[in-house]
Amino acid sequence: YPNSQLIAAGTPKGKNIFRELYHRALAGEPGYYGKTYTSWDNPWLPEGEVQRLIDSLPPEAVRQEVYGEFVDVDEGAFRVIPREWLRQAVERWKASPPPTGYPTALGLDPARGGKDKTVIASRWGSYIGRLEVYPGKSTPDGPSVAALAMTASSQTTQINVDVIGIGSSVYDHIKGIHDQVAPINGAAGSKAVDKSKQFGYRNLRSQLFWQLREHLDPTSETKLCLPPDEEMIEELAALSWKLVGGNIYVNSKDEVKDQIGRSPDKGDAVAYSLYTMTPRFTQVVTRKPKGWYG
Question: What is the DSSP string of 144-171?
Answer without folding.
Answer: HHHHHHHHT--TT-EEEEE-TTTHHHHH
